[in-house]
Write a structure and sequence with these properties.
33% of the residues lie in helices and 34% in strands. It is α/β, with parallel strands linked by helices.
């Protein structure tokens, strides 16, 4: 079984259309949609927006079910000068908590610098940087590049940054990009990965780019296009999951 997670229903319309034999069940406080895509058993859950909602939803599904992997998908804001445009796709190599730490007169100190890990797994402590499953990432990256290239779409692998306050100015985006070397940001990814690490479940995360982290101008955004391309990528991977899961 593959667990598919997204923050909102806006980001899952195509996936839901592709699911067959669907049924709804309660999963903790959340509604879970069960079904199949290309014969693969799927559990789809909407987490809600933000770190706390994302962590609660991931805990709920992983405590009740045993997926072979979690795929987190949706929209993201791309940092400038990362080679991404609206409608392109970013694929996470790691997740970074962008806010956790302390701002001092001398700059930002992350959790490692102040000496407090955020989570542990198999006696390994993790601070702001949380790794993803590298073999699964590499397999997905090769397949998605082959899928996106004929459409003229770019795929950018790299660190994702999870924030509580999205970058609504070019200056804030620049600061976060320089500090983290991230390619894009969202409000859920690190929290989902946090729980996946503690359960030992591989996570794959991808996001369609809905906006750039410039001075906020919603008229320049394209959330439908970003949502659609992210879902097309998810469906491409699920449709060939028998080959993709060899990386696990």
């Amino acid at each position: 079984m593959i667990a598919l997670l997204a923050a909102t229903e806006i980001e899952t319309a195509l996936v839901r259309e592709a699911m067959t034999g669907t049924a709804t069940a309660r999963c903790g406080r959340f509604d879970l949609t069960k079904g199949r895509i290309s014969g693969q058993l799927i559990s789809l859950l909407h987490t809600g927006i933000g770190k706390v909602n994302a962590a609660l939803a991931t805990e709920a599904i992983l405590s009740q079910r045993k997926p072979t992997a979690v795929i987190l998908f949706g929209c993201g804001g791309a940092y400038l000068d990362r080679g991404l445009q609206i409608g392109d796709v970013a694929l996470a190599t790691e997740e970074i908590y962008g806010d956790e730490g302390v701002v001092t007169p001398d700059g930002f100190l992350d959790m490692q610098k102040i000496g407090f890990p955020l989570c542990s797994n198999d006696d390994v402590s993790f601070y702001n940087h949380l790794p993803l499953h590298q073999e699964l990432h590499a397999e997905a990256r090769a397949r998605l590049r082959a899928f996106l290239s004929p459409q003229g779409k770019s795929l950018a692998p790299g660190p994702f940054v999870t924030v509580s306050s999205c970058s609504g100015t070019a200056e804030l985006g620049r600061i976060l990009a320089e500090r983290t070397e991230g390619v894009c940001e969202s409000m859920e990814g690190a929290a989902v990965n946090h729980v996946c690490l503690q359960y030992g479940v591989p996570l794959l995360e991808l996001r369609g780019i809905s906006n750039l982290t410039e001075d906020r101008d919603p008229e320049r955004w394209d959330i439908p296009a970003a949502s659609d391309i992210a879902q097309q990528c998810v469906l491409e991977l699920v449709n060939d999951w028998a080959n993709v899961e060899k990386a696990l």
